[in-house]
Amino acid sequence: MDSRHVSGDARHLHDKVQIAAKILVVGHFAVGKTTFIGTLSEIPPLRTEETMTQAAADVDDLKGVKGKTTTTVAMDFGRLTLNDRLVLYLFGTPGQQRFVQVWEDMTRGALGALVLVDPQRLKESFAVMDLVEKYGIPYAIAVNHFDGNQARAESELREALDLLPETPIITCDARDEKSSAKALVSLVRYLQSRTRQEQR
Amino acid sequence: MTAPDEQEPESVGLVRPYVITNGREIADGDRFELVTLITAAPDQQQKSRLDPEKRSLVELCEGGYLSVAEIAGHMRLPIGVVKVLLSDLAEGGHILTRAPVPAAQLTDIQVLQEVLDGLQARFG
Question: Which InterPro entries match (chain B) (predicted)?
Fold first, then answer.
């Protein structure tokens, strides 16, 4: 296990923590959400489950292999204590339409979302894009590099995903801490500029 | 790196979730959000009288604050079940909650700035 991860008894938050902020890491099945969260989290990523009324949900899988049938949907999440009073939670959320119940809970109070995209499987991102937009969550696109795959040109991606001109597109490697942190920073900067504009 | 995706999500245990919650659905689901912070109340005289699940929940929260999502993750219980347990425990005075973001006191702009500063300090 990574040494950054606190273990056992150290998993509680600092007593002074006042603010729990939430950022979503969304994307299709096996796009790298849990890898991204695990790379940045100070605790080993945890899994929570929400019982679904509908059966047959794919549980996200790092190996990108077989889905499995279950009546629950899993969300993996991680935690980052950013200062004495502020903790940031990163929630990995699957993007299928049938997970709307989970999205209700997940999006409430979220600052924004990082949409992980695999340029080779763009079509699979459409459902998650629909959900993010439906719930009005401000987002940035993070193109997760996979070995040997060339990212599509930004303009092509922008067109394919029908992005606003101001929506940031960042490339990142979910396995790399600096690269993942940079993607998160870009999202937060974008959220700041949006909030400032709204206040004008 | 840990890969929770490779783990089989464990079952709730020997009883089905609605048994743990005495057949109740979430009455006030809005009261607890995924990132509502929970800690055990300092005085726990009555703890031994609690159901096993509630007692373990209180014990989990004795060391400090944890979010609702973390409690569910550590206890391997669905979020909905944890919310019911928390609701009962709050009523009985066993746990204390800290609301997610004291919205009136802090604007999004301030929170975003702190998040940004924190990320940059941490990851350079």
Answer: DUF742
Q: Which amino acid is at A158?
A: R
Contact yes or no for B56/B74 (Cβ under 8 A): no
Mean pLDDT along residues A9-22: 82
The lowest-confidence range among A40-54, A160-174, B14-28 is B14-28
Residue A4 CA to residue A200 CA, distance in Å, equals 41
Q: Where are the domains of chain B?
A: 9-123
Distance from CA of A116 to the nearest CA of B (A): 17
Return the closest-CA partner of residue B32 out of B1, B72, B74, B73.
Answer: B72
CATH code for the domain in which residue A90 is found: 3.40.50.300
Residue A59's pLDDT is 46
- Class of B9-123 per CATH? mainly alpha
- Write out the residue range of the structural domain in which residue A74 sits: 16-199
Q: Which residues pair with A51 in a beta bridge?
A: A72
Share of residues in chain B with pLDDT > 90 (%): 49
Task: State the Cα–Cα distance between residues A102 and A105, nearest whole angstrom.
Answer: 5
Write down the ipTM of this complex.
0.82
A3 lies in a domain? no
Residue A93's pLDDT band (cuts 50, 70, 90): confident
The answer to whether the CB atoms of B34 and A22 lie below 8 A apart is yes
Judged by CB atoms closer than 8 Å, whether chains meet at B5 and A61 is answered as yes
